[in-house]
Fold this sequence. Notes:
Elements: H1 14-24, H2 61-74, H3 78-90
Amino acid sequence: MAGKKIAITKKPTAVQADEWVEERKPKPQEETKPAPKPATQQTQVEESPEELRRFTIDISEQLHRKIKAKAAMEGETMAKMLRRILEEQFT
Length: 91
């Protein structure tokens, strides 16, 4: 590695760091409508007055495929369908 030189500079000041962060922020774009998201992405969690909590479980690949297929046939996401089923069962 002879011949390579690396310049070591001073630690940036807080003002320099703030300026760097400001430069990195995305620039506001002209007012245009955002591109529609693909139908497979859920754009908004079901409206609910309660705070949502993450619930993670492990299921077999076969069960996952069945749930995913049923949700697709009903035209909804897996998460929304499972939320509905759990609500029906536990309320």
